[in-house]
Here is the input.
Amino acid sequence: MWFNYFGAMITLTEENYIKAIYQLGKYGTVNASTNSIADALETKASSVTDMIKKLADKGYVNYKPYQGVKLTQKGKKIAADVVRKHRLWEVFLVEKLNFSWDEVHDIAEQLEHIKSEKLINELDKLLDYPTHDPHGDPIPDKSGDIKKTDKTLLFNLDENAKGICVGVKDTSSAFLKYLDKYNIALGSKITVLSKEAFDDSMVIQIGETTINISQVVANNLFIKEQ
Amino acid sequence: MWFNYFGAMITLTEENYIKAIYQLGKYGTVNASTNSIADALETKASSVTDMIKKLADKGYVNYKPYQGVKLTQKGKKIAADVVRKHRLWEVFLVEKLNFSWDEVHDIAEQLEHIKSEKLINELDKLLDYPTHDPHGDPIPDKSGDIKKTDKTLLFNLDENAKGICVGVKDTSSAFLKYLDKYNIALGSKITVLSKEAFDDSMVIQIGETTINISQVVANNLFIKEQ
DNA sequence: ATATAAATTTAGATTAATCTAAAAATTTAT
DNA sequence: ATAAATTTTTAGATTAATCTAAATTTATAT
Here is the structure.
């Protein structure tokens, strides 16, 4: 039996729902729809309805039938803790255990549910208090706060604009391997050489090399403009 | 959905039963009784009967009604893997995250179920291939083999015998804290100064200090005689 | 404004793991 | 060797999480 921050018991399934609601509802500030939760968790809408009623009973979400759900403060704290753990474990896997950024997600999905405050605080210390995970996503602090940096999609940069790659939107293994192949990594300096109106592709420069990327790629790379 | 070494799905509950059977049945070589399994897992005998039927169906144990169960080769491999992970995580917690030996058990109980071969192999490497956990218990190797060293309980030593503390039988927090208090740790040199027939207590020397220990303590400390 | 489509909820079943109480088998003690 | 005690199994229920299919509500389009 495991108990959360508030001294209440919480199941692994409940944690996963709360996390999904957090991420779908822009960190818990807007309503997440029943169907979007079902899609995110690869389950059925009817299962979601059942579960959100239970979460509402326990005080993790506010729910009005047909209106979707929004996290309460209590729910937000749970979600931020799970996300914090997920991202810290990802850093651990890459920094200490030689994993690459396309291999860490599934393992972090398991590790994020381990219950121990001391464990996560010591892990944070071991990793020297990282602020971002290997995909550039910010790590919530102990109280659940996220400091967000100004970043934009590469797609939005104008010709001749320069910036640094600070994150990926799509974290699928396929996309990350594509980036590896073309030596695009967090920290890479990117210059937009030209944009093609026809298909929204662009030519960019990374270090010495020049490559042509599709609109799909440009829409999944976060850039800090300079 | 997680799949084991044999490509079959295995639940967390099944893993816990298999581990208990392994440890009760002296690493799976003798039969574990229904009641002993129930005690170990803090559940009821009727629940155990249900589960061992399922484990038998899946080929992890051999079961004849009223005869208890013994692990199959398949079951033994699963169990040894779980124990290997448990003990490696314990080493990690103590060596890398500043935990003391009385704090690691509950967290390792959670971590032992994380599924990733690469994770556990890399952890093994990070820890420089440890052979024993913080309580002196041997860590099974990748193929599930345990090399056991010759050790005896302090209780069995004669007067004037010398040895080194190599493990604890009781791993409860209470006992481990007792040992900390009297500076008894793995690696401590111990000499039996005298034995008291009346209550089976003994006087031992550790480093510069001399202490009186009860039969209970003597029966829970493993010693390598010298 | 009303019909149609889409989203959501309800009703009723199913599965895994558990429980209690009763029945059956085995072990122990005289 | 048989009665008593203990252990184990069976039978029937319960809970959490899920599902399908049907009903209901909300949104969309003409």
In short: Residues 11, 13, 43-44, 46-47, 50-51, 54, 65-66 of chain B lie near DNA strand C (CB under 10 Å from a C1'). The radius of gyration of chain B is 19 Å. Helices of chain B lie at 12-24, 34-40, 45-57, 73-97, 105-111, 117-126, 173-181, 215-218.
